[in-house]
Amino acid sequence: MNKYEVIVIGSGIAALTIANCLYKNKNVILYTKSNKLTSNSYKAQGGVAAAMEKEDTWEEHFLDTLTAGVFHNDVHHTELLTKNAIRYLTQLINDGMEFDQDQSGRLRLGREGGLMKRRILHSGGDATGKNLMDFMFRNVQDKLTIVENEMVIDLIVQNDQCIGIVTKAVHGEIRQYFAPFTIIATGGAGQIYKFTSNVETITGDGIAMAYRAGAVLADMEFMQFHPTILYKNGEILGLVSEAVRGEGGFLQNSRGERFMEHVHELKDLAPRDIVARAIYQQLHKGYDVFLNITQVKNFDNPSEKFCKSISYY
Ligand SMILES: Cc1cc2nc3c(=O)[nH]c(=O)nc-3n(C[C@H](O)[C@H](O)[C@H](O)COP(=O)(O)OP(=O)(O)OC[C@H]3O[C@@H](n4cnc5c(N)ncnc54)[C@H](O)[C@@H]3O)c2cc1C
């Protein structure tokens, strides 16, 4: 029987990134609750941010990120993220990951909330998450073991050390597995909200099991709300990417007022918390909120010129 050195819980981008870093030196096994393609990462549409243009710098990306985080961010980690994003994405491109380019071969960069510059790389239009995850799965296949449809329900802790996991398999069997290292990459908790674009497995399990094991949780009062999802007849039909506002889409209330004009200098591209709060205030006043896409060129769905938007992630 294989002896595994690292257990990774989850099969999103966080899990695959760490597995990709470790598999050369460690025997890695990954457990995921549903099938391996079920993750928010697979559904991510808008793209990934990095200062890839010559006219852009990681320092500007760093500052935009701190501003969007109202300077509550961990400065060291924000610096690591914005600096390493350039190196990491360059490496991905060199390894063969394809991001959308214009006719001259330059990356076609989009703009999203809180960014002062176009900085979003995308792949296959709005299929960035799917394309990136497929690429990463291809890279790690045969290099690690992936166990699907087995939900991790707890960590096994002995003398303040995590020594393994307890799982529940498809037919309800409870199993235990042991390894010197366990990495939790189970994503967030979007499914606790009535309206959400998150996949059904994103229920905060990792946060809860870490807490039960004695980990200290930080910043639990913060939940990121993506401002726009498509809501029709009481049903959520999917997320409307911020890239739509980056290409000229704008918010209006049912009186036709462009209410973001007076809220923030970046208007409809203000940081997400500001846009989400402004939408909430409109709803609270009794107005509906719509995303006007008439100015967005080559939009795929001309019959739906107005998307009704509500601010739940
Ligand atoms: C519709 C949508 C669009 C988005 N678009 C963008 C975008 O354009 N750009 C961007 O940067 N971000 C985007 N995001 C956010 C982004 O997808 C997430 O921040 C990111 O994917 C999180 O990655 P992760 O690996 O931490 O978690 P996830 O990708 O959510 O993966 C978590 C994994 O853990 C598994 N899991 C959960 N609980 C257990 C358990 N108990 N046992 C075993 N496995 C478990 C899940 O099934 C899943 O495989 C979007 C999110 C959504 C929902």
UniProtKB/TrEMBL annotation:
<dbReference type="InterPro" id="IPR027477">
    <property type="entry name" value="Succ_DH/fumarate_Rdtase_cat_sf"/>
</dbReference>
<dbReference type="InterPro" id="IPR036188">
    <property type="entry name" value="FAD/NAD-bd_sf"/>
</dbReference>
<dbReference type="Pfam" id="PF00890">
    <property type="entry name" value="FAD_binding_2"/>
</dbReference>
<feature type="domain" description="FAD-dependent oxidoreductase 2 FAD-binding">
    <location>
        <begin position="6"/>
        <end position="295"/>
    </location>
</feature>
<dbReference type="InterPro" id="IPR005288">
    <property type="entry name" value="NadB"/>
</dbReference>
<keyword id="KW-0285">Flavoprotein</keyword>
<keyword id="KW-0274">FAD</keyword>
<comment type="pathway">
    <text>Cofactor biosynthesis; NAD(+) biosynthesis; iminoaspartate from L-aspartate (oxidase route): step 1/1.</text>
</comment>
<protein>
    <recommendedName>
        <fullName>L-aspartate oxidase</fullName>
        <ecNumber>1.4.3.16</ecNumber>
    </recommendedName>
</protein>
<dbReference type="InterPro" id="IPR003953">
    <property type="entry name" value="FAD-dep_OxRdtase_2_FAD-bd"/>
</dbReference>
<comment type="similarity">
    <text>Belongs to the FAD-dependent oxidoreductase 2 family. NadB subfamily.</text>
</comment>
<keyword id="KW-0560">Oxidoreductase</keyword>
<keyword id="KW-0662">Pyridine nucleotide biosynthesis</keyword>
